[in-house]
Fold this sequence. Notes:
- Helix content is about 75%, strand content about 5%.
- The protein is an all-alpha fold.
- The protein has one domain (about 80-265, about 290-380).
- Strand 3 and strand 4 form a beta hairpin.
- It is globular.
- This is Putative transport protein.
- Pfam families: Asp-Al_Ex.
- It is found in: Cell membrane.
- It is a multi-pass membrane protein.
- InterPro entries: AAE_transporter, YidE_YbjL.
Amino acid sequence: MLNNPIFLIFLSIFLGLTIGKIKIFKFKLGVSGTLFTGLILSWLSSRHLTSVPTSLINGLNSYFKFSLILFVSSIGLIAGKDIKKTFKIYGLKFILLGFIITSTGFLLIFLTSFITNFDNFHLLGLFSGALTSSPGLATALENFPNNSKIIFGYSIGYVPGVLAVIFSTYIIPVIFKNNSKKEFENFSRKDFKISEQNPYYFDFLGYSLIVILGLIIGNIKINVKIFDFSLGITGGILISSLFFGSIEKIWIFNFKFNKQILKIIQNFGLLLFLSTVGLKSGYYVINALSFDAFLLMILSFVIAMISITVGLLFGKFIFKINTLILTGSITGGMTSTPGLAAAIDSTNSEEVILGYGATYPFALIGMVIFNKILSYLFLSY
């Protein structure tokens, strides 16, 4: 059974979700527990196998790519429904905020590569870990398939990144003690509501078209001076799903997918992604734990806090965003679902979801773009 990728994937999902439910104070791993159980299972399996079978590696790679398609397409389709509305009501505020937070993390990682001796691949993974972005990790691994150092950086940086987001959600309401509930009255909750369709409706014809065109877009090579650039699976699928998600129907293709079904696909894709990532690299990651790993954890927390602080300053004093909405926007800019749960708890209000939903898709796009840029910058020197 140690050679069976399906068995190992679902075992890591089962164990990961079980561990993810354990709550310590305000923190729990949630679905991210799947990554860590995958790492442990991989490490344990490697101790009983003289060599990792090629069939197992190929199987995990296939499921990894399939998980990207499910995860990214569902995110894009959900976000695509609100993009026009966000532009119309709030202009560029949430768009800029998503890019400001992710670009701050990008610049800090890039500067760190010059002033420290950390491995660039560790830092590339740490970028996605500190900003708690699974799609960011997916983009990095597309550029460097099966790179265990990237997964190590992400794994080391993820928990400090989540802790930074959770910490900030409890600090923001304390710093800004204005009457957020009264201030929120200037915002319209109904503006963000999405009309629900038939709860069982899902057009597989339209979905297949989105995936096909996304894969074609992702494989287009763009020559830019010193390197060839392509969007890959992540970027291509994201663009395709965002575009078609913003429209309802073309000819015989219906793109008005039910949101709850998309959420299920998103969660399943994320579980597949995290488990395969862990299973592919557990032996290296666990055996690479050292004092440098501890320093990387501290670095991750610092990068996360600086990125959050910059986003907070822009959001509050330049964009004048309501405190409740801003709290959610920070978690969206950090693409952190655990952070959103903490924000709801700290503010005792679900209005924070609006800020999260408005900022998240643009932070996601930012993570894809900046991971691509970092990858090529690290290759060039």
